[in-house]
Amino acid sequence: MKHAYKQSDKVFKNSMKNLPAEKKLTKEQKKEIQDFYKGLIGKEIPLYSHEYFYSRTGIYSKEYIPRSLYYVELQPKACMVPYRDAYANKNMADTLLPDVKHAHTILKRMNGYFYYENKPVTKEEAIKACSNLKNAIIKPVLESSGKGVQGLEVTNGKTSIEGLSIEQLFDKYGDNFQIQEKLKQHAKMNELNATSVNTLRILTYRSGMEILLIYSVVRIGRQGQVIDNQNAGGMSTIIGEDGKLGKYAFSGYTGERVEKTDSGTVLEGFEIPSYAKAIETVKRLHFELPFFNLIGWDIAIDEVGDPVLIEWNSNPGLSQSAFGPGFGKYTERIIRELWPRKNTRYNL
Fold first, then answer.
1. Mean predicted confidence (pLDDT) in 90-115
2. In the chain, what are the domain boundaries?
């Protein structure tokens, strides 16, 4: 656990170098933060996250949640860690959650086995079926943060990726990946960036029979890029309760803060289509995943305005730059609920 704390500390200390102005916490602010957390969990916390987000956003709050506290202690209390990999495998999403739109999956490879249009096939049959593709996406299914996601076209068995043949590409991606049709997103979402599918990241928390909406942000790709993930160079900004965007978008751990997308679209006041429908969808779906009290949903809006589940995350990050401190208005409630629970990283 100490190693995890040190790693998180290092991430933020390095990131502080990229910020335009470092804001130091006052003695009074430090006391307020430690008093708040000692009242919740009975101990003090590291302060690097508070200093980082205060410096990056200009907003001080005692309720920022340190990365290490979140990933090492809170997240494993909210979710069943041993079940994560199997349940969150992207190839299983349409099986686990059939009552929602999904991007059309052309090919799955699961544990080395191939499934074309959800039917088992040999590798030779898979190669033949994927020898000519347009507007496709290939992605690993056990990775996060957009790692390995690439646009894909195939002509007579030769791919657009490094000049590899389709068989060589299969071998490169290994035993677990998927190929999907690139989703045709809503015209309004195209205005944010046309080369990426710009998704809503919605964080929900289950408390008994209530699903709490913690926050929603929209993730926007950069011009010419396929993926929108913030840690892969994309940007994100908060979505208000009315479905309209905030003034600024933030990119990765850098100090970049922008008011327009690369396409020139002004963020503030931009309205996300079908936002209320997307929120209703994820709240309904959360009840179908009882082993995970905290879920990050990646939702696209398709060309006819329907929410499409791109993936769900059993170990979601916190967007404390774009959204704000911790779990928002539910911070104290959620921490108080989670703290007495078992840490499933170490025991069940």
1. 96
2. 1-101+183-348, 104-181
CA-to-CA distance for 75 and 317, rounded, in angstroms?
9
Q: What is the residue whose two structure tokens read 């079940």?
A: 83
Q: How confident is the model at residue 8 (pLDDT cuts 50, 70, 90)?
A: low
Q: Contact 299/185 with Cβ under 8 angstroms? A: no
Which pLDDT value is given to residue 254?
61
Helix/strand/coil for 188: helix
Q: 179 with 136: CB under 8 angstroms? A: yes
Residue 86's pLDDT is 86
Rounded to whole angstroms, the Cα distance separating 69 from 74 reads 6
At the topology level, CATH places domain 1-101+183-348 in: D-amino Acid Aminotransferase; Chain A, domain 1 (3.30.470)
Share of the chain above pLDDT 70, in %: 89
In this structure, how many other beta carbons lie within 10 angstroms of the beta carbon of residue 98? Answer: 9
What is the rounded CA–CA span in Å between residue 275 and residue 265?
A: 18
C-alpha triplet 91, 164, 182: angle, nearest 5°: 40
pLDDT score at 20: 63
339 phi and psi, to 5 degrees? -55, -40
pTM (predicted TM-score): 0.89
